[in-house]
Amino acid sequence: MIYQNTQKPLGLYIHWPFCISKCPYCDFNSHVHRSINEKEWLDALLKTLNYYYKITANHKLTSIFFGGGTPSLMHPSTVESVIKKACTLWDTNPDNLEITLEANPNSVEVNNFKHLRQAGVNRVSVGVQSFNANNLKFLGRNHSPAEAIKAIETGIETFDNFSFDLMYALPHQTICQWEAELKSAIEFGTKHLSLYQLTIEPNTAFYKQYKRGDWQLPSHENSNDLYDLTGEILSTKGLLPYEISNYAVPGFESKHNLTYWRYNDFIGVGPGAHGRIRIDNTTHAFKQYSSPAKWLSSVQKDTNPGCEEDAPLTETTVFEESLMMGMRLKEDLTIARHNVTLINTDILADFDKMRLIDNLKESSNEISFNMTSKGRLVANSILGKLLR
Ligand code: SF4
What we know:
The chain is an alpha/beta fold and about 400 residues long. The protein is about 40% helix and about 25% strand. The chain folds into two domains: about 10-260, TIM Barrel (Alpha-Beta Barrel); about 315-388, Arc Repressor Mutant, subunit A (Orthogonal Bundle). The strands form four sheets. Strands 1, 4, 5, 6, 7, 8, 9, 10, 11 and 12 form a ten-stranded mixed beta sheet that branches. A three-stranded antiparallel beta sheet has the order 13-14-15. The structure holds iron/sulfur cluster. Iron/sulfur cluster (SF4) binds near residues 22, 28, 68 and 70.
């Protein structure tokens, strides 16, 4: 069935679920497989794209994001085929289409950068995580600080739009150590950085170690100090926070991730991928099967390929989800009058006094405010108090 929508922006997420090894903190849908039939996987991705095109035919494709897992393990020709197919199906403006691929810093993947650029990728995000050998060892990463540096240098040479990730608030990490890492990071002149505090997720190796008391995380107070220091140091190079963990020179924010945070429509293709698409005034939540084998077999035989869930959401859920995502951002959040009954408006003045929100404005049509840096850090707790 083809649903009629007016042309709306659309983000496309492709999940490649394979990694060389499993990092101990990782709760992503990633699996260690030595060999896969890449042609079979490509055919499955293309078939799923065809299916989603039918329900979003009137959208305009604004971004493609290859995530994982480790999508830089895909052969560049596989990446190219997916990009070509998406650009053939959806209307898009090639000059404005952001195409991101996540990569790890090992040499095989870095040697692929120029082939990935030829395949159509125009933005790469590398999982550096640390420049410190002990931290990399603790995080179970299989690259060295030298490989991390090489990956950044090659990435910056190859792509105008390049980002890398670091992790902080690690056990025993001091302010001085993090300051040194940040100063190394900004010296490369990258225009985007993602900086994540270590969190302990259930069903990970770190979860067991943490519960056993093998090590402790820094206190909230120390983590907040590290967060404040991060903003201060990055601002010296014009890298401004636009989301809890993301910093960019204005104009280099991740378009694709902004699609999620602004609650625009997106499709997720591949094991465990999620999507949100508004069809005939109802937002649908899509989820693909998480198990790679089950996903592949469903795509090969089902008419609704790989789809474990296609559920219409209530307008209350849509509002709550959009608020939760929007509160991660620095930009203004607007709550339309018809949704104001869903929140405790009285508490907003308290949040304002506590400097958790800023620029609180109320008109007959809407309430708007933006989250402060302090507020974004406790966005979940603010959300819990704000919702009725
Ligand atoms: S490389 Fe990334 S996706 Fe793969 S296990 Fe490590 S953190 Fe998870």
